[in-house]
Design brief:
heterodimer; A: 290 residues; mainly alpha; 2 strands; 73% helix; B: 245 residues; alpha/beta; Rossmann fold; six-stranded mixed beta sheet; four-stranded antiparallel beta sheet; 10 helices
Chain lengths: 290, 245
């Protein structure tokens, strides 16, 4: 029983890890205050669920989830190309609300608030990941691949151009770099991995509805990115583990779930506040918040 | 090399650049001087594409670049040093300099598959440049940890390393100590001897008149005089604009 619970937590950590390191790519490394991440996660989850329910194989709906989210990421980068800081945050937040509204109201496709039940567990080469242990292994492999790709991007010269864009976009342009292209690629790549996380989430829980993709779901991921430290993947991993596990003891103290939910938000808010006061760069942040 | 024709840029009622025309000849150091607010930096911003002109034309090596974007202008061969330091503060000195060398680093797949390896030539080039200014020890230092003068030097190196046919240098020695000032003057001298074309803005008259071959004087957005340094030094109109006599 306890081990099943821990496996569940590890899978959740895995899904959050993909979300957080991909958000770190756009927020920490490129300096795009992107609040649209949860929308990419939503697009990925719905794309994956709908394709899976229509009998497509795992590798198709899993990759389709990533690519569709990536297209949305790229499209979002076009109208927001000249926006920075708070303005970009507002525009991408607006995008999150639009995607949420579509998921809620396009009932012909998404069944709206009723959600999509009965999403099948992934099947690969005839093997179905029906029990949680095998699903954990699948999650671990996907997390590892996602991490290695994002790590590779950030340490490569390409990643240095992203960081240069974050530090001083005008100076980067004057060195002859097309920063619009850089920001688009960063946002689209970040969205791709959020889409993959969405697909994993839908196949794991086997049910999705729009309530899983609200701003409230974005807050923990954003907290992880800031607490772990901007532009630090190591910090992000540590923060993900801590933030997913921290509210869990509340369940054992006997609080009803109606309290545990809001209490999580309070805990995240409190940690964020403490970190910003005592350690403004987060655990391992390279970049100072401005 | 660079030709500016009837360039105009107004900010509301302020005529920052007003019908300004001049030319920069190849293989010369041309200095743009004038009192504060004369429009020198605005001209720089117009040439490098950061601001868009209201009217007029900017021709570089025969191409009209009046409406071009900063990155395109840079890739055509204009490299520019800003008046305020614009280093990438969270990157190291070496990373800052490497960014200037080429644009291979903007290619996603090439970098993802490690096909953009750091070559020996690039490494040596950076080392040589740092040796030139005696800053080889600072290769791995984050630029935010450097002193103001060091930042200025690194930024000047970055501007020079950016492939170019034409250099624009905005106040390279402002706020820099006399020793570093000499280093920067030597670098400019060396560049001139290598046959580079440079457009320079500098407030320090002695510095400017010593290094420049040609001087253009601006006041209130207009060119009020131009000539060789010795002519400009004794031009009554220039003295009046500068000293307010």
């Amino acid at each position: 029983m306890i081990s099943a619970y821990f496996i569940h937590l590890l899978i959740l950590i895995g899904i959050y890890l993909i979300l957080a390191i991909s958000l770190q790519l756009s927020v920490g490394f490129t300096g795009l205050l992107n609040l649209g991440h949860i929308a990419f996660y939503c697009v990925g989850a719905y794309a994956s669920a709908l394709l899976a329910l229509n009998g497509f194989p795992f590798w198709i709906y899993f990759l389709a989830a990533g690519f569709l989210a990536m297209i949305f990421g790229f499209l979002l980068s076009i109208p927001t190309k000249k926006l920075k800081g708070d303005y970009l945050a507002l525009a991408t937040l607006g995008f999150s609300f639009v995607i949420y509204a579509v998921a809620l109201n396009w009932t012909g496709l998404t069944r709206g608030p009723l959600g999509l039940p009965g999403i099948p567990r992934p099947t690969l080469f005839g093997f179905t990941f029906s029990d949680n242990v095998s699903f954990l292994i699948l999650t671990f492999i996907i997390v590892l691949i996602s991490y290695l790709i994002i790590k590779k991007i950030t340490i490569s010269p390409f990643g240095k151009v992203l960081e240069a864009t974050r530090d001083d976009e005008l100076a980067t342009r004057v060195l002859g770099k097309n920063t619009f292209k850089m920001k688009s690629i960063s946002l689209a790549t970040s969205a791709f991995f959020a889409g993959l996380a969405g697909s994993l989430y839908a196949s794991y829980i086997t049910f999705i509805d729009p309530s899983s993709f609200t701003l409230l779901q974005l807050i923990p991921v954003l907290c992880i990115v800031i607490i772990g430290g901007l532009a630090s993947l190591k910090g992000t991993i540590i923060a993900t583990i801590i933030l997913v596990l921290l509210p869990e003891p509340l369940r054992f103290i006997g609080f009803p779930s109606s309290i545990v939910g809001p209490a999580r938000q309070i805990i995240y808010g409190l940690i964020l506040l403490l970190i910003l006061v005592y350690r403004p760069k987060g655990f391992y942040g390279k970049v100072e918040l401005e | 090399m660079l030709e500016i024709k009837n360039l105009k840029k107004y900010f509301g009622g302020v005529k920052a650049v007003d019908n300004c025309s001049f030319e920069v000849k190849p293989k010369t150091i041309t200095a743009l001087i004038g009192p504060n607010g004369a429009g020198k930096s605005t001209v720089f911003n117009l040439v490098s594409g950061i601001l868009k002109a209201d009217s007029g034309k900017i021709i570089f090596s025969g191409a009209d670049i009046t409406k071009a974007k900063p990155e395109k202008i840079s890739n055509l061969g204009i490299s520019r040093l800003f008046q305020q330091t614009k280093l990438f503060n969270n990157l190291t000195v070496k990373e800052n300099l490497l960014l200037a060398l080429d644009n291979e680093d903007t290619k996603f797949w090439k970098n993802l598959f490690s096909l953009n390896k750091l070559s020996k030539e690039k490494e040596t080039k950076i080392k040589e440049m740092l040796n030139l200014i005696g800053m080889e020890k600072f290769e791995s230092t984050l630029t935010r940890d450097l002193s103001y003068g060091q930042k200025r030097l690194i930024e000047l190196l970055r501007t020079i390393l950016n492939p170019h046919k034409f250099l624009m240098v905005d106040e390279p020695v402002a706020g820099v100590n006399p020793k570093l000032r000499e280093v920067i003057a030597k670098i400019l001298e060396k560049l001139k001897n290598q046959g580079e074309t440079i457009l320079l803005i500098e407030h320090d008259m002695n510095f400017t008149l010593n290094v420049a071959d040609w001087v253009i004087v601006m006041e209130k957005g207009k060119v009020i005089a131009q000539g060789k340094p010795e002519e400009i030094r004794n031009n009554p109109r220039v003295l009046e604009a500068y000293l307010g006599e």
